[in-house]
Amino acid sequence: MLTLEGATVRFGPRAVLDAVDLEVADHEIVCVLGPSGSGKSTLLRAVAGLQALDAGRVLLAGADQAGVPTHRRGVGLMFQDHQLFPQRDVAGNVAFGPRMHGVPKEERAARVEELLDLVGLPGAGRRSVAALSGGEQQRVALARALAPRPRLLMLDEPLGQLDRGLRERLVVELRALFGRLGTTVLAVTHDQGEAFALADRVVVMRDGRIVRSGTPVDVWRRPGTEFVARFLGFENVVPATVSGAVADTPWGRIPVPDGSPQGERTLLVRPAGVRVTDDGLSCRVESRTFRGHRVTVVLRPADGPPLEAELPLREVPEVDAEVTVAFGAEEVVVLDGA
Amino acid sequence: MRRDPKGSAARLGLMVLPVAFFAVFFAWPVVSIVERGLRPDGVWDPGAIGATLGRSDILGVLGFTVWQAAASTGLTLLVALPGAYVFARFDFPGKGVLRAVVTVPFVLPTVLVGTAFLALVGRGGFTDGLWGLRLDTTVWAILLAHVFFNYAVVVRTVGGLWAQLDPRQEEAARVLGASRWTAWRSVTLPALVPAVSAAALMVFLFTFTSFGVVQILGGDAYTTLEAEIYRQTARLLDLRTAAVLTLVQFVAVGAILAVHARTVRRRETALRLVSPERTARRPRGVGQWALLGGVLASVAVLILLPLGVLVERSFATPEGYGLRYYRALGSLDEAGTFLVPPLEAVGNSLRYAVAATAIAVVIGGLAAAALTRRAGRLVRGFDALLMLPLGVSAVTVGFGFLITLDEPPFDLRASWILVPLAQALVGVPFVVRTMLPVLRAVDQRLREAAAVLGASPWRAWREVDLPLVRRALLIAAGFAFAVSLGEFGATVFIARPDNPTLPVAVARLLGRPGELNYGQAMALSTILMVVCAVSLLLLERLRSDRTTGEF
């Protein structure tokens, strides 16, 4: 459906998009993940034709979009802060797209009804958009974006402004909805939870470049680089010298999976791979954070950086207690490069 | 709403001085004039209204007043809306300077504007010399001068809002399938309509009451209501007709102001506003550069050219360029146009303006302080009262001063203070409008915090309010200063022949035949322009976008 070839956008000397190549297949949901300022929003604007490319091409269904104005590209874009039209009511907002495409009035009204039902706001057509809650605005924005039946739907931080509980529920709803409609989706977000729950494929961006691409499970298991690992929220990243099945680290010798790359590397130890044992690295317990039935514990070893461990409730030590920990090779990942 | 008897007593106290000021120096003179016209022999004669309005010459004046105001408003919008767009959405070098340049005309005296256009399109003027084209015998000269004058009103009011409209609203429409034009029409235009109508009403109001410009460019052929009131009072001494016309103008202006107030209230609907810095881009593509070029060209032709020609004419003597006209300003002429050398008008104008500014700032500041807390009907009525001097014929006020302030307890006819008092009356609305938004923006809780920390109300005002409003106060003073420098309608009546102000002296010079008088008028106008430009530059220095009022 969508192909980007060497897409480049410069703001002055800075490349906001730096030769980006990306493919989105029909019916695929791709989530672009990256910290703010990594060029995610610019990527969407370039595809929509709201931002001119300095180099490269955007193709939709194989056709080069250079010179095609935004309103003829047949893509939908849901803006970060929704951008609902304040002077129109809910129905007026949702009907806007079909109206622009010359859909007759009765058909438009039916489409509005259908979409408001779909997003869970039946009968809300006459309401003023200013009177909607954040979650309702988000649903109206979605209905409005879907109304003209775009061949590619783009979402810019779709759930960014909502509170956590609502966000988690809506992500599941969205995923089910897009699956049912067969919509092709390109979304950008800085929230890993959102990206992994929504996407068939996750693309990680940094400074205008794509640094990792893969299925959520794949990226989660093998982040590939220290940047991606840290961006995913992992703190236990240290330099290491790998030889055979063992790595030398500031935390001592740590076992690594078979077939790991050798030499000077960076090592990721997932918190689940740190276990309290009778013998091993001795640490003082610095703090504890409770997350349901598991607890994240920050440990301060005598040498090296602090260490995060994820422990079951029944094994949690007191703050300031002295414990010894060992590492499980299956939760250790050798990353590329230093 | 909390009831606070002590607070409302304090507010009433603040209102005493402004109310008294308005009663003595505005209501009394205006009412006296109207009474004298409608009750000539101690008997009310309401039939005079119908009789006067039935006269065909008066109907002609009324028709022309409305027509030229509507035409001026339409023409101003046509020329200034592209300018508003360019200032709102484009980023280009020299934008700040250009913004200051287009603001200059608004505070320039009407007489000066009239003179500049006379130099541009009048007899022996710039276009006359170049192509033999004269417009001073047509209505176009008046209309163009009105556009010149009100360009800034539209650019400030509409452009200010336009710059804050989120461009992504239009982008949202574009992604939904709207073309560039459709997106603008269906998203931006509806958001702009209230601001455009507010600006249009303001322009209509200013041009409806136009006096100085019409006086100089209209000749006998074109007369507005205000100019007719002047003619009836000063030349024909027909107070009855003048009184009726004053009432008509009063009603019309009241209606315009009421519609304007409603439009402004509606303006603050749920629009998505963002910081103006985020919305301006460098122009892209041929179309946008052409638009920018067109706007720059229209500013050059409409605003810079008349002022430039004015300056040029002031040096262009028959013997070539020289300072002859300026030198002549320093001495008395044989014809007895003045009792003093015209140059003394500079000192008079500055002295009057300083006094008028002081009065306007005190009265307007007190009024604004009283109006700070939105409250009952009484206070709202007071608010409307303050706007009235903008609309009531300045000529009427001036003439009213002459007939009411000539006996005890206010025997001021011989006093120089009469002129600043009349000028301050016109300056007060500007002071109030500039101060009020800023005063209202001061959070009451800041004062409460100061009180809890041990500050008396006066002390709290000095420590909390004053630092925040100081800038607005300076801007308001600048406005009042510019307004009184340019005031013409009232001053022309009450300025004594031995103490003319600059606009009065210019008008008097233009009223005399002969090339020397014409050249001196140009020279004196140039001096007036320099004085205004210097005060405006100081004003623009102090101005920050956060503290802009409605003007």
Would you spell out the secondary-structure blueprint of this structure?
The complex is a heterodimer of chains A (338) and B (551).
Chain A: E1 2-11, E2 14-24, E3 29-33, H1 40-48, E4 55-60, E5 63-64, E6 75-78, H2 90-100, H3 105-118, H4 134-146, E7 152-156, H5 164-181, E8 185-189, H6 192-198, E9 201-206, E10 209-214, H7 216-221, H8 226-231, E11 237-243, E12 246-249, E13 252-255, E14 263-269, E15 274-277, E16 281-291, E17 294-301, E18 307-312, E19 322-327, E20 332-335
Parallel strand pairs in A: 3-8, 3-9, 6-7, 7-8
Antiparallel strand pairs in A: 1-2, 1-4, 4-5, 9-10, 11-12, 11-14, 12-13, 14-20, 15-19, 16-17, 16-19, 17-18
Helix pairs in contact in A: 2-3, 2-4, 3-4, 5-6
Chain B: H1 5-38, H2 47-54, H3 56-89, H4 95-107, H5 110-121, H6 126-131, H7 140-162, H8 167-175, H9 180-208, H10 212-217, H11 225-235, H12 239-267, H13 285-315, E1 316-317, E2 320-321, H14 324-328, H15 344-371, H16 377-391, H17 394-404, E3 406-407, E4 410-411, H18 418-441, H19 444-452, H20 457-486, H21 491-494, H22 502-510, H23 515-542
